[in-house]
Amino acid sequence: xxxxxxxxxxxxxxxxxxxxxxxxxxxxxxxxxxxxxxxxxxxxxxxxxxxxxxxxxxxxxxxxxxxxxxxxxxxxxxxxxxxxxxxxxxxxxxxxxxxxxxxxxxxxxxxxxxxxxxxxxxxxxxxxxxxxxxxxxxxxxxxxxxxxxxxxxxxxxxxxxxxxxxxxxxxxxxxxxxxxxxxxxxxxxxxxxxxxxxxxxxxxxxxxxxxxxxxxxxxxxxxxxxxxxxxxxxxxxxxxxxxxxxxxxxxxxxxxxxxxxxxxxxxxxxxxxxxxxxxxxxxxxxxxxxx
Length: 291
What we know:
Radius of gyration: 18 Å
Number of domains: 2
Number of strands: 20
Low-confidence stretches: none
Shape: globular
CATH architecture of the largest domain: 6 Propeller
Helix content: under 10%
Strand content: 35-45%
Structural class: mainly beta
Mean pLDDT: 95
CATH class of the largest domain: Mainly Beta
CATH topology of the largest domain: Neuraminidase
Number of helices: 0
Largest sheet: 5 strands, antiparallel
């Protein structure tokens, strides 16, 4: 195993830490937060931090609240690699349709090694005082900042990206055909994941894509771009995607959020009438994104 392949080895899940660098008081910064609420009301937040900026040695921090966010156990869990040259970053937390809780994160050698990798650990007891977690496993190439989509037929689609242009990307030329806004599919409730396809949207920036299923059966992918938010559509479950176009939703080249609510409406969180990364707003659509 080469030194750079140490990022292919699992990190540690640390439930009790007395190290000051893991403590809230020792944190210089934090980024890429994700929030989930279990069916029984337990709140989980995950983000990453460590070191003085985004670099080797970053780790993910999990916070937990059992009283609707009034009080938090922080840090409740740390995800950290033994190799200080490996960073754990861009995490998210998700409750699947079976009620299990998933922690996802990316691992890379140095800041970005051109391959990275999406890792996961899952528990069937998210509301227990001390849940039992699966061993961390690598499920995809790339990075996944946003939550999976669950299609009408039960398929899970994970929005994973192998960044098209970023320092370090040339280190793994064998992944050239994967440098897209990809979807990894699971048809067995997370037992296995397979890359199904990917969209190629011009001027995308870190991808940060999300997918929703429209009422006509098409999949609608939104992707962060330098000009705002690009889009692509799939009519075959994510295997092939249309050429990317401008969605017209705008944005200051920043992260957004889209999901279908239980009411059937679409929720989009995006910048509106912005002069930079400001004026975040929640927008609702009753007509499947037309307005």
